[in-house]
Amino acid sequence: MEEAIGIVGGSFDPIHLGHLILAQDAAEAFELDRVLFVPCARAPHKPAGAVASPADRAAMILAAVEGDPRLAMCPVELDRGGLSYTWETLEELRRLNPGAGLRFVIGADTLTELHSWRNIGRILELCEFVTIARPGFRLDGLTPADLRLSPSQGDALLRRVAVGHGVDISSTDIRMRLAEGLSIRYLVPEPVAMYISEHHLYGT
Protein backbone atom coordinates (compact mmCIF):
# COMPACT_ATOMS: atom_id res chain seq x y z
CA MET A 1 0.00 0.00 0.00
CA GLU A 2 1.48 3.32 -1.08
CA GLU A 3 2.25 6.04 1.41
CA ALA A 4 -0.05 9.05 1.05
CA ILE A 5 1.84 12.31 1.47
CA GLY A 6 0.01 15.61 1.80
CA ILE A 7 1.67 18.84 0.66
CA VAL A 8 0.81 22.27 2.02
CA GLY A 9 2.61 25.10 0.27
CA GLY A 10 2.88 28.75 1.21
CA SER A 11 5.06 31.53 2.56
CA PHE A 12 4.34 30.63 6.22
CA ASP A 13 5.30 34.14 7.23
CA PRO A 14 4.64 33.10 9.98
CA ILE A 15 3.04 29.66 10.22
CA HIS A 16 -0.11 29.80 12.37
CA LEU A 17 -2.78 27.57 13.86
CA GLY A 18 -4.92 27.83 10.73
CA HIS A 19 -2.16 26.11 8.73
CA LEU A 20 -1.88 23.33 11.31
CA ILE A 21 -5.63 22.78 11.49
CA LEU A 22 -5.78 22.64 7.67
CA ALA A 23 -3.09 19.94 7.69
CA GLN A 24 -4.89 17.95 10.37
CA ASP A 25 -8.24 18.22 8.57
CA ALA A 26 -6.63 17.02 5.34
CA ALA A 27 -4.81 14.15 7.05
CA GLU A 28 -8.01 12.92 8.61
CA ALA A 29 -10.33 13.46 5.64
CA PHE A 30 -8.03 11.95 3.00
CA GLU A 31 -6.16 9.38 5.14
CA LEU A 32 -2.75 10.97 4.68
CA ASP A 33 0.22 9.30 6.35
CA ARG A 34 2.28 12.50 6.43
CA VAL A 35 1.79 16.16 5.65
CA LEU A 36 4.72 18.27 4.48
CA PHE A 37 4.79 22.03 4.91
CA VAL A 38 6.75 23.38 1.94
CA PRO A 39 7.76 27.03 2.45
CA CYS A 40 8.44 28.87 -0.78
CA ALA A 41 11.67 30.71 -1.42
CA ARG A 42 9.75 33.37 -3.35
CA ALA A 43 6.16 33.02 -4.50
CA PRO A 44 5.34 34.13 -8.07
CA HIS A 45 2.12 35.84 -6.87
CA LYS A 46 3.88 37.79 -4.09
CA PRO A 47 6.51 39.92 -5.86
CA ALA A 48 7.43 41.74 -2.64
CA GLY A 49 8.57 38.46 -1.12
CA ALA A 50 8.37 37.25 2.45
CA VAL A 51 9.06 39.49 5.43
CA ALA A 52 10.97 36.93 7.50
CA SER A 53 14.05 35.20 6.09
CA PRO A 54 13.84 31.69 4.67
CA ALA A 55 15.83 30.40 7.66
CA ASP A 56 13.44 32.02 10.13
CA ARG A 57 10.33 30.76 8.34
CA ALA A 58 11.75 27.23 8.23
CA ALA A 59 12.68 27.40 11.93
CA MET A 60 9.16 28.53 12.86
CA ILE A 61 7.64 25.60 10.95
CA LEU A 62 9.98 23.19 12.72
CA ALA A 63 8.96 24.68 16.06
CA ALA A 64 5.27 24.42 15.16
CA VAL A 65 5.31 20.76 14.08
CA GLU A 66 7.62 19.41 16.79
CA GLY A 67 5.96 16.56 18.63
CA ASP A 68 3.52 15.63 15.83
CA PRO A 69 4.97 12.73 13.82
CA ARG A 70 2.47 13.30 11.00
CA LEU A 71 3.80 16.78 10.19
CA ALA A 72 7.16 17.88 8.81
CA MET A 73 8.94 20.81 7.21
CA CYS A 74 10.23 20.16 3.68
CA PRO A 75 12.93 22.59 2.44
CA VAL A 76 12.96 21.70 -1.26
CA GLU A 77 11.87 25.16 -2.44
CA LEU A 78 14.14 26.99 -0.01
CA ASP A 79 17.09 24.85 -1.13
CA ARG A 80 16.28 25.53 -4.78
CA GLY A 81 15.90 29.28 -4.26
CA GLY A 82 14.36 31.75 -6.67
CA LEU A 83 10.72 31.67 -7.75
CA SER A 84 8.83 28.65 -6.42
CA TYR A 85 6.80 26.84 -9.06
CA THR A 86 4.61 23.96 -7.96
CA TRP A 87 5.43 21.67 -10.88
CA GLU A 88 9.17 21.88 -10.13
CA THR A 89 8.54 21.12 -6.46
CA LEU A 90 6.39 18.12 -7.30
CA GLU A 91 9.03 16.77 -9.69
CA GLU A 92 11.55 16.91 -6.84
CA LEU A 93 9.15 15.39 -4.30
CA ARG A 94 8.36 12.58 -6.74
CA ARG A 95 12.10 11.88 -7.04
CA LEU A 96 12.55 11.92 -3.25
CA ASN A 97 9.47 9.78 -2.57
CA PRO A 98 9.24 7.13 -5.31
CA GLY A 99 6.06 5.13 -5.09
CA ALA A 100 4.30 7.55 -2.75
CA GLY A 101 0.98 9.15 -3.59
CA LEU A 102 1.31 12.94 -3.54
CA ARG A 103 -1.77 14.91 -2.45
CA PHE A 104 -1.56 18.69 -2.80
CA VAL A 105 -3.80 20.35 -0.19
CA ILE A 106 -5.67 23.51 -1.20
CA GLY A 107 -8.53 25.62 0.06
CA ALA A 108 -11.78 25.74 -1.88
CA ASP A 109 -11.09 29.28 -3.11
CA THR A 110 -8.11 27.95 -5.09
CA LEU A 111 -10.16 25.47 -7.14
CA THR A 112 -11.16 27.99 -9.78
CA GLU A 113 -7.58 29.32 -10.04
CA LEU A 114 -5.80 26.06 -10.79
CA HIS A 115 -6.20 26.41 -14.55
CA SER A 116 -3.86 29.44 -14.43
CA TRP A 117 -1.04 27.64 -12.60
CA ARG A 118 2.10 27.24 -14.66
CA ASN A 119 2.35 23.76 -16.24
CA ILE A 120 -0.93 22.65 -14.65
CA GLY A 121 -1.10 19.63 -16.97
CA ARG A 122 2.14 18.25 -15.59
CA ILE A 123 1.07 19.10 -12.02
CA LEU A 124 -2.07 17.00 -12.43
CA GLU A 125 0.08 14.09 -13.62
CA LEU A 126 2.34 14.34 -10.57
CA CYS A 127 -0.25 14.70 -7.80
CA GLU A 128 -3.89 14.68 -6.83
CA PHE A 129 -5.39 17.87 -5.42
CA VAL A 130 -7.42 17.50 -2.26
CA THR A 131 -9.55 20.43 -1.18
CA ILE A 132 -10.53 21.50 2.31
CA ALA A 133 -13.58 23.76 2.26
CA ARG A 134 -14.88 26.01 5.00
CA PRO A 135 -18.11 25.00 6.74
CA GLY A 136 -21.03 26.16 4.61
CA PHE A 137 -19.10 25.95 1.34
CA ARG A 138 -21.45 24.63 -1.33
CA LEU A 139 -20.46 22.84 -4.51
CA ASP A 140 -24.01 22.95 -5.88
CA GLY A 141 -23.34 25.70 -8.38
CA LEU A 142 -19.80 24.65 -9.29
CA THR A 143 -19.36 22.42 -12.33
CA PRO A 144 -16.26 20.85 -13.91
CA ALA A 145 -16.57 23.40 -16.71
CA ASP A 146 -16.19 26.22 -14.16
CA LEU A 147 -12.69 24.96 -13.38
CA ARG A 148 -11.62 25.49 -17.01
CA LEU A 149 -9.80 22.17 -17.19
CA SER A 150 -10.74 18.97 -19.02
CA PRO A 151 -14.10 17.47 -17.94
CA SER A 152 -12.39 14.47 -16.35
CA GLN A 153 -9.91 16.66 -14.47
CA GLY A 154 -12.63 18.98 -13.23
CA ASP A 155 -14.83 16.09 -12.15
CA ALA A 156 -11.96 14.49 -10.20
CA LEU A 157 -11.19 17.77 -8.43
CA LEU A 158 -14.80 18.26 -7.34
CA ARG A 159 -14.99 14.72 -5.98
CA ARG A 160 -12.01 15.26 -3.67
CA VAL A 161 -13.46 17.96 -1.42
CA ALA A 162 -13.93 17.69 2.34
CA VAL A 163 -15.28 20.20 4.83
CA GLY A 164 -12.77 21.36 7.42
CA HIS A 165 -12.82 23.78 10.31
CA GLY A 166 -13.49 27.44 9.61
CA VAL A 167 -10.39 29.19 10.99
CA ASP A 168 -10.05 32.82 9.95
CA ILE A 169 -6.39 33.47 10.74
CA SER A 170 -3.92 35.05 8.33
CA SER A 171 -0.19 35.64 8.45
CA THR A 172 -0.79 39.21 7.26
CA ASP A 173 -3.03 39.92 10.25
CA ILE A 174 -0.48 38.38 12.62
CA ARG A 175 2.29 40.59 11.24
CA MET A 176 0.06 43.67 11.55
CA ARG A 177 -0.81 42.82 15.15
CA LEU A 178 2.83 42.38 16.06
CA ALA A 179 3.77 45.67 14.42
CA GLU A 180 1.08 47.37 16.51
CA GLY A 181 2.19 45.70 19.73
CA LEU A 182 -0.90 43.48 20.00
CA SER A 183 -1.01 39.90 21.25
CA ILE A 184 -0.85 36.89 18.93
CA ARG A 185 -1.73 34.42 21.66
CA TYR A 186 -4.16 31.75 20.41
CA LEU A 187 -3.20 32.55 16.79
CA VAL A 188 0.16 30.76 16.59
CA PRO A 189 1.64 27.84 18.54
CA GLU A 190 3.46 29.00 21.67
CA PRO A 191 6.90 27.89 20.36
CA VAL A 192 6.35 30.07 17.28
CA ALA A 193 5.40 33.07 19.40
CA MET A 194 8.53 32.52 21.48
CA TYR A 195 10.70 32.30 18.36
CA ILE A 196 9.24 35.53 16.98
CA SER A 197 9.89 37.31 20.26
CA GLU A 198 13.41 35.95 20.74
CA HIS A 199 14.46 36.83 17.19
CA HIS A 200 12.67 40.20 17.10
CA LEU A 201 10.68 39.41 13.97
CA TYR A 202 7.88 41.55 12.52
CA GLY A 203 8.67 44.62 14.57
CA THR A 204 8.85 42.90 17.98
Concise description?
With about 200 residues, the chain is of the alpha/beta class. Helix content is about 35%, strand content about 15%.
Please write out the topology.
Elements: E1 4-10, H1 17-29, E2 34-39, H2 54-65, E3 71-73, H3 76-80, H4 86-96, E4 101-107, H5 120-126, E5 128-133, H6 151-159, E6 161-163, H7 171-179, H8 190-198
Parallel strand pairs: 1-2, 1-4, 2-3, 4-5, 5-6
Helix pairs in contact: 2-8, 4-5
What do these coordinates show?
This protein is α/β, with parallel strands linked by helices. The protein has a single domain (4-168), classed as Rossmann fold. 37% of the residues lie in helices and 16% in strands. It has a six-stranded parallel beta sheet with strand order 3-2-1-4-5-6, with helices on both faces. The mean pLDDT is 93.
Count of distinct strands? 6
CATH class: Alpha Beta
Low-confidence segments, ≥5 residues, pLDDT <50? Answer: none
Distance between the termini: 47 Å
Order of helices and strands: EHEHEHHEHEHEHH
Q: Averaging pLDDT over every residue, what do you get?
A: 93
Percent strand: 15-25%
Number of domains: 1
Helix content: 25-40%
The name of the CATH superfamily reads HUPs
At the fold tier of CATH, the topology name is Rossmann fold
Count every helix, treating DSSP H or I runs of 4 or more residues as helices.
8
What is the alpha-carbon Rg in Å? 17 Å
Name the strands of the widest sheet in spatial order. Answer: 3-2-1-4-5-6
Going by CATH, the architecture would be 3-Layer(aba) Sandwich
